[in-house]
Amino acid sequence: MELQQDPTLLWFIAIYGILMVGIGVFMSKKVAGSEDFVLAGKSLGPFVLMGTLLATWTGSGSISGGETSMAFSYGILPSLMMMLPTLVGIIILYVVAPKIREHGKFTVAGILESKYGRTSRNIASVIIILAYVGIVSYQMKGFGFILNLTTGMTVQTGTIIGAAMIIFLAMIGGLRSVSQTDAISGFLMVGGLIITVPTIIMVAGGWSEIVANVPESHMSATGGLTTIQMIGYLLPSLFLLLGDQNMYQRLASSKGNKAAKRAQIGWLIAMIVISPSISLIAFASRSLFPDIDPGMALMATTVAMPVAIGGVLLAAAASFIITTGNSYLLSAATNLTYDLYGKYVNKDASDKKLLAMTRIFIVALGVFAFILISYFPTVLSVQMYAYTVYGAGLTPAILAVFFWKRVNAIGGLSSMIAGVLSTLIWEIVLQQPFEVNSVVVAVPVAVIVLIAGTLMTTSPGSQSKKGK
């Protein structure tokens, strides 16, 4: 089937965009201070919290990279396996959530500082900013794919428009407005995907026709990937989710532990629907449009279906991208404000000043993210890189704070440095040997260094002291 633009679909994106901007402006008037901006005044109930967790996690990484690219490039089974890290991560976060709330910190760097000292806060802030800017960057490009598909404008021009929307919605009202738009977007996603799956299978001629039109390897367990390569695609999302500051901030913004638990159960159930749906749609797209960019697999199906269904799916795809982008952009900006600016540049900054600086940093980091995406060939490549920098650099040290009382500053700091350096050396210096993602090397290195560093510098009966 030939892929042709359908400008009619742009109306669905326009209506969604106007609605999101309107809600953002309205909610921005309720922002009373920095805690309102960053943690929504710790007022989120289970319904809104579930929506914002869902929408924040399922972004362009899923609909342009992740499940979509895996289904198109390697097959249905490898793509379905991409759901497993998310489900495992949500279950573990369910256990950790009360401990996150107890810390009462705006950032993950603040949690690390309480255990490992000030140096860990500085290192963590840099890691978070670098990783999150990467995540924001491919949300922008994902929106560029959407506008290219619907109007024929270049991906670059569409990326600029996506960048403007993401920056504006993050800046205008912080989590107070982002959480509301996220909730709407989350439920739009679920509805759009449920409608699309049976429709696209019918349009493609049925399941047997889809299977007949894809390479034989696409029906195998790993799609031609080796076991170690498959693990390299699965681990990054798990280790990002387990230590994701965005998720921590949302769990900390709930009304209480009961609301957080209900929200996480709802999030788990929604992901069991969303992730396989994305995989099936992208797999059908491989049959219909075998020559397109893998990152456009899901969005390409919108032009093959009835306009109403295609429009709903495209609006859902846009919601994936915009909500994830503005959430990670906001989170990264809080690190600059509270962990760097407030600690070193202006220690006596007023609440009003901190709020103003957060908005300035949102714009600056948004521009940086737009520039960054031009240096990566595909969404999947920048996704794996950003996830691993974060997952290897921070997650082992973060989980140790909650689960290992003996861990000390030397172990935590050494693990953070080792995780990041291993990732950079494997990806940049060695150019990804054997086509294996760096997570396979970086995470084990970070964990081993964490354990060894702690055991070598504390006696068995002692308890770690706060780093100086």
UniProtKB/TrEMBL annotation:
Keyword Transport belongs to the record: yes
Locations listed in the record: Cell membrane
GO cellular component labels: plasma membrane
Catalytic activities: L-proline(in) + Na(+)(in) = L-proline(out) + Na(+)(out)
Protein's membrane topology: Multi-pass membrane protein
Pfam families: SSF (PF00474)
KW Nucleotide-binding (keyword) present: no
Family the UniProt entry places it in: Belongs to the sodium:solute symporter (SSF) (TC 2.A.21) family.
Name of the featured protein: Propionate transporter
Lineage, broadest ranks: Bacteria, Bacillati, Bacillota, Bacilli, Bacillales
